[in-house]
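U., I forgot to send this yesterday:
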Amino acid sequence: MTWLVTLGTSVLLVLSSLFAGTVRFFYHSTPPATAPSVATTTRIVTTATTTTPQAETPTPILTSDGYKSGYYRDSRTIYYYFGSYSVPVLGADPTTFAAIGNIITGGYAKDKNNVYLLGKPLPGIDPATFTFISTDVPIPTESDYPGAYATQAYAKDKWHVYSVDTGSIYPPTIIAGADSATFTPLFDTNNKITDYSKDKNTVYYLWTIISGADPATFVPVYASVGYWESIGKDNKNVYYSAWVSGPIGSGDQPQSSQISGADPETFAVIGSGQTGSYSKDKNHVYFGASVVQGADPETFILNLNTSIDARDKNHSYVNGQKVQ
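Result:
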């Protein structure tokens, strides 16, 4: 009996102990009636706004007569356009950059530091004093001579006078010894600029001296298609000027010579043949600077719509040579 009491007591103790543990478990699992205070922080997120600059459209820089010079600018850079693509003009000063001259000198520009041709600086030329001479006159058209067109211009700075071929990529050529104070381009009777010029002492063909020519009385007479040959005269002589083959490797060079025996008073140009010009005076017919032997000046005319250049009452001619 005693062992039953003891066993019962033990069971009760165990059950009591288990019950107490369960109560403690549930007690600690139940949240308190009042929630503990918790420190809270409000986070402010700031998003940086980046503004992408709008791309600038370069604007054209115009020549003095309102034509596009080939140069363009935006607020920071000068560009030169070659057809559909452009290159920046390195080192150009946007504040002082300007096109120089007119439509036939559109590839030229300058700023406070340099003179530029087609976007490239030209060393040795003074930008402060560099200017084109008489580019504001009409230029030859295909109806003038006939067929002539101008690529010739002249310029000067404080050091030199320059011959400028505006139709090429080559820089200006110094006219050695030219007097800038009295230098002037020469124009034909239609007020079109020619390849001839002069100062108080000398007559020039492009950048070369015409030996013996008198600047006081010299006048241009003729310029061919493309200006490959020109003719001028003074009160004593007639001069033929053309591009001729220079020394091997040097290319063509401008050269002038007297048309021997030509009479300046009666000299007149007839026109261009297939490869050169015909002219005449009271005594002879000339092809370039040479006499056309046997030609009759009174009846000599061009005859370009056939296989020959010209004819007179006696013969037909090709390139200054009698053919029948």
